[in-house]
Amino acid sequence: MRSENVLEMQGICKAFPGVRALHNVDFALRKGDIHALMGENGAGKSTLIKVMTGVYEKDAGQIAIEGRPIHFRSPQDAQNIGIGTVYQEITLCPNLTVAENMFIGRGRYAFVQWKRMNAKATQLLASLGIPARPTQQLSSCSLAVQQMIAIARAIDMDCKILILDEPTSSLDEDEVKKLFALMRELKSRGVGIIFVTHFLDQVYEISDRITVLRNGELIGEYEVSSLPQFELVSKMMGKALGDVAKIRKHEPPAPVGSAPVFEGTALSSDAGVRPFNFTIQKGEVNGFTGLLGSGRSESVRAIFAADKVTGGEVKINGKKVKIRAPLDAMKQGIGYLPEDRKGDGIIADLSVRDNIILATQVMKGFFRPLSRKQAEEFADEYIKSLNIKTPSTNTPIKSLSGGNQQKVILARWLLTHPEYLILDEPTRGIDVGTKVEIQKLVLKLAEDGVSVTFISSEIEEMLRTCSRLIVMKDRQIVGELSGMNLTQSDVMHAIARGGV
Amino acid sequence: MVRAKAHGSHLFLPLSVLALLIVINLIKGADYFSITVINGALYGNIPNILFGASELVILAIGMTLVTASSRGQDISVGVAGAITSAVFVQVLQNSGDITWLTIAASFLVSCVVGIGIGAFNGSLVSIFRVQPMVATLILFTAGRSIAFMIDGKLSPVLANNLTSQIGGVMPGVPIQTPIILTVVFIVLVAVFLKTTNLKLYSESVGINEKAARLNGIDPAKIKFLTYMILGVCSAVAGFIAVTKAGRHDSVNLLKFVEMDAILAVAIGGNALSGGKFSISGSIIGAYTIEVLNRTFLRLEVGTETIKAFKAVFIIILMVVASPVVREYATKALRRIRSGANSGTMPKTGAPDAAAVSGPEAVAKKEV
C-alpha cells in the first residue's frame, strides 16, 4: 500500500504573517490516480500545492516521493524530480512563440536548436490536438489554447506527478473533454494527477479519490464513489448546504414607463464586436451568454468604454450622454468588474484599503483625497459586510486568496454606489461558498434597485440570477431568452442554433 | 528591490547605512559633529552635508515619482538643470538691475523651461511609449550643447551680492540658504502629496496600468505629470547649483548627478521597476550618498580614486540589500536560533527528563 504512493506528505504546517495557511495536513497520492483536492477559498489548496512544488518552504512536516524523503529548496528541484505543475493563472511568456514557451529553460545545450524544437512542438501539439502553430506568438492564442499549451509544457517534462490547479476554468466543454482524455491517457501511463477545480461535476467525472481541506486543516480523504456530491459540498463548507436551493431570482421588473437605466444603440469598439443594441431596466439582472470568444466580454467592455469605443449612442435614464473613457462611465453610475482579475482588476502591491477605495477616490477627483480615517472606515465596512478574509486593511491584496481578492474588487465598485454594475465572470476560480455569496449579493442589489449584468461560463449560475439572457455567437448578438423557467438545455440550444 | 513588510521598515536600509557611515566618521575623529560659527553662520560636517546634498535631494524626489509611474528613470535631470540655469542666468542678466524681484522672475522663467523639458520627455514616454531611459537619452546627449548655446559665451559669471546670498548665506540667518530652500521644497512636496492623490495614482499606474485605466485613471496623464514635476525639480536644482557656483559652467554644472539621483531612489528602498514608493526613503538615500562622498574625503582617499571606492561600497550595499541575501539571512538566523535551543536543551533538561521517565520505563519493562 505504502509503496504505491508516489507522493506522501505528513504533518505539513505553513504559516504566513497573520494567517495560518496549513496546519498538520496529510496528503497521499497513489500512482496512476486522479486525486481531487477540494476546499473553499483560503482552505489551503494553493498553499499545499506550492509546498509540494517547492515554491514555499514548509514550516514543519515531511514530504516523500516514492517512499524517499525529499526536501525541496526551489521549484526547480521539484521539477527535476518529476513534478509538473499548471497553475490557475497562466504563467507563460506572452511575447514568446508557442514552441519557445513549451521548451524554454529546459534545454540541455547552451544554444537553442530551433528546428528540432519546432518539430518537437509540432508533434506534441498534434498528439494533444491543440490548435496552435509552434512559431505563433503565444499572445495571439486564445486563453483556452494558452492553458492547454501550459499543460503540454508540464506533460512533456516526463513527470511522475502532474498538478493541475483550476485547469478548466477558462476552457469550454469541448476543450474540457480533450483535456480529460489527455488526463486518462496519462493516468494509464501511471502518472499521479492532482486535480484542483471548483467544478464539482468534473470532479465526479474524472477523479478516483478526493481530499477535502477546510481552513488549512485536513477534513478527510474519500473514495469518490463513497462520497455523494451533496456531502462533499457540506464538508467543504462545514455546514449543511441549503443555501443554493434558497436562491430565487426575481421576476423581471415591469417597465414602469420610465426610461431604461442604460440604453445603447449600435455600440461598437475596436476590440472587434459587431455594433449591437442593449438596454437594461432599473433593478433588472441580465446576462450575456455564449461560448468563449463569442464576444460577451467585448460587449460589456464596450458599454464601460474599457476598449476604445468606435461608434454608437448611449442614453442613461433617457438622457443622451457621451462615454469615451472608463471615467465617463463611472460618472454615469456604471461599475465594471473585469474578467481578468489579475491583469485588469487588482493593483497587486497596493493594500486592501487602497484597492477598495480606488474607484471612489478617482471619481472624487485628483485634488480631493479621502482622509486616512475615512478610507479606513470604508475598507472596514466592506471587509465586514462582504466577509473578506484579510489580516488587516494594510495587507497587500496580492497576498489574499483569489476569492477574497475578487470580493475586494466587488467592494471597490459597491463603494461607488453604482446604478448599473457589470460583473464579468465574478465567480471564476473561486469556491462554492463565495459563489453563492456573490449570487445572493447580485439579487440583493437588484432588490435595492441596482441593475446588474452578470456573465458566467456556468450557465446554471446565470439561470439562477438573470431574468433575461442575451445570446452571443461570433461576436454578435443572435438572440434573447427570458422567462422564469429557462433550463440549461434551452440556453445550449440557443447558443448552438445561433438564434432563438 | 526592497519590499516594505511593515510600516517604516522600508527605511531600515537607508537609515542603517547612514548610521554605519556616521560611526565610521566618529571613529576617524570625535569632532565629526562639531559645528563652528563663522560670520554668524554655522559650519561643520553636518551643515556641509546638508548644503552639499541640496540639489541631489531635490532631484531624487522627482526621480522617485517618475520611477513609480513610468517604471523607468530620467537620465537627463542634470542636463535639464544645466539648461534651466542657463536660461535663469540669461534672463537675469538681460533684465537690467538685479533685485529680488528680477531673480524671482528669472527663476520662474527657468521653472517654465523645466516644465517644458519635462513635458518633452513625458510626452515621449507617455504618448509615444518610448522607454524612459531611451527617451531621456535624447536630451542627455544634446542638453549640454543647448546650454552652451544659451550661454552664448564661455561660463557667464553671476557677480552680484544677491545671488551669492542664495547660494551661500543671508545676513542674519545662521543656516546656509540652499539648506533652507531644500527644506522648503520638501515641505511643499509633502503638502502637495497630502492634498492630492498623486501617490495613489502614480503607484497604481506603475503597478498595473490596465487596472488603473479601468478605474478611471488616465495613465498617460499621470506619467506626463510626474515628468513635469521632475522638470520643476531640475529647475530648482539648477537654480541652487548655479547660485552656489557663482557662474554658469555648462560642461560641469550638475555633472553625473543623474546617476546619483537614481542611486538615491534605490538606496531609499524603492523598486526601480516602479510601483510603491517612499519619498522619505529617497531623501535619506540622497543624504547618505553625500555623507558617503564626504566620508571618503575625510578618510583621505585621493579625489581621483574616490569613485572606485564609492563603487565598491555601493556594490556591497546592493548585494546586502538584495532579496537573495535577505532571504538567506532570515533562514540562517532561524537555524541559529533553533540550533541554540536544541543545543542548550539537553544540558538543562536532560537530568529532569531522565528522572521523570526513568521509573516509568522500568515499570513498563516489568509489566
Structure, described:
With 500 residues, chain A is an alpha/beta fold. In chain A, helix 13 packs across helix 14 and helix 13 packs parallel to helix 15. A six-stranded mixed β-sheet of chain A has the order 6-7-8-3-9-10, sandwiched between helices. A six-stranded mixed β-sheet of chain A has the order 16-17-18-13-19-20, with helices on both faces. Chain A has a four-stranded antiparallel β-sheet with strand order 2-1-4-5, covered by helices on one side. Helix content of chain A is 35%, strand content 24%. The radius of gyration of chain A is 24 Å and the shape is globular. Chain A has two domains: 239 residues, Rossmann fold, CATH 3.40.50; 252 residues, 3-Layer(aba) Sandwich (Rossmann fold). Chain B has a domain of 223 residues. Helix content of chain B is 72%, strand content 2%. Chain B has a two-stranded antiparallel sheet. In chain B, strand 1 and strand 2 form a beta hairpin. The N terminus and C terminus of chain B are likely disordered. The chains are: A alpha/beta (500), B mainly alpha (367). Chains A and B meet through helix 11, helix 12 and helix 13 of A and helix 9 and helix 10 of B.
Q: What is the domain total for the residues of chain A?
A: 2
For the record, the CATH class of the largest domain in chain A is Alpha Beta
Q: How big a fraction of the residues of chain B is strand?
A: under 5%
Order of helices and strands of chain B: HEEHHHHHHHHHHHHHH
The counted number of beta strands of chain B is 2
Structural class of chain B: mainly alpha
**Adjacency order of strands in the biggest sheet of chain B:** 1-2
Helix content of chain A: 25-40%
Q: What value does the Rg of chain A take, in angstroms?
A: 24 Å
Q: Give a short account of the largest sheet of chain B.
A: 2 strands, antiparallel
Distance between the termini of chain B: 64 Å
State the helix count of chain A: 18
Strand content of chain A: 15-25%
Shape of chain A: globular
Radius of gyration of chain B, in angstroms, nearest whole number: 26 Å
